[in-house]
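New to this. Please check this fold:
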Amino acid sequence: MNNALQARRASILAQVREYAEISLASQEFVAGESAVPVSGKVLDADDMIALVDSSLDGWLTAGRFTTEFQDSLAEYVGMRSSSFVNSGSSANLCALSALTSPKLGKRRLLPGDEVVTVAAGFPTTLNPIIQNGLKPVFVDVEIGTYDAIGDQLREAVGPRTRAIMMAHTLGNPFDLDLVQQLCKENGLWLVEDSCDALGSTYRGQRTGSFGDTATVSFYPAHHITTGEGGAVFSKSPLVTRQVESFRDWGRDCYCETGKDNTCGKRFEWQLGELPLGYDHKYTYSHIGYNLKGTDMQAALGLSQLKKLDFFVKRRKENFNYLFRRLDGVEGLILPRATPHSDPAWFGFPITLPPDLAVDREELMRFLESRKVGTRLIFAGNLLRQPAYRDIDRRVVGDLRNSDIVMNRSFWLGVYPGLTESMLDYAADSLIDFVQGRRGGR
């Protein structure tokens, strides 16, 4: 790039900074008038500059920012590699699909093999199991941690069980000691859905670094954002190859975007029933997809990643502040971290006991009327959802807690954009409603 273009680019980015500092300035919170969002993105001028800077490259697809972002992500989490994709849901699809590859030999997952998961979760943790012809085995969750019940995990492992795939619910790590023990003893794959838990730790080790594959999401509600986006982590270079094959149309070639002949024998391969020398860039070893992200998304992610430690700190502070405000309020089951974990909480889950005379939907409508955002714990009991009623599955126990989650649980926000004034208003509103209903019994 010549000096004149460099100067013009610098001028554009300086104007972007000036614009962003004005447009992104925080607004005063007015109780009852201002919203208390349940989640949201936190952007600054550096993020806006990253977006514009990458767009001025005119590259658009995966490029220099993607390479740096993937390397930085892997280093942060503590995994050998990361592969950037267009969403956390796509990350889950690639992470599990990779384990069905014939290139994994006898360890590949085959149709009919069982994968243990929880019933109270997000659909796209379950969907790849079904989409790959595998059989989900559902276990229940604990009220309070909202992670899998340990005894049921042990019971769930049977002769056809080949993998465990489940999420750290709302950022709260599941029992990784037990899960890793079960995987080691039974030769199981572990797919660690860490989409809500970037920055959480278990025994001091970051989530996303335990599984054979693991996933994160960068949707605006999550710990950092690329708009849409996600990533797959993997320990084995062989597995990474399959992750990226499923992401990149199913092709056998592993050249990065814009590069050719990385293997040094592009026209010397003979695979399948193709003629000798058929272009490796157009040879497909899997029935794959196009699930790649863009360089602009990666540029934003790289900028956001530099602030992740601060975001995690703020989430923990907001969670603890809400806990102090709500601790001792009769009738509320408050969240608790799993043993040995330090969650980077995605939200603040609350359960209303079945015998408490408070209607959850009425409570949520009341909070929303006060502009306090709320959300359910995802799909509740997934087996009650219309999409999954007739799927082939195995169930351990009666899933009674998953039904309680479906009917009596919700969560409040703790994301870094919330202030103490917002949290106080949310807590006061919740307490007013619960105590008013209890007093009227």
Residues 367 and 407 are 17 Å apart (CA to CA).
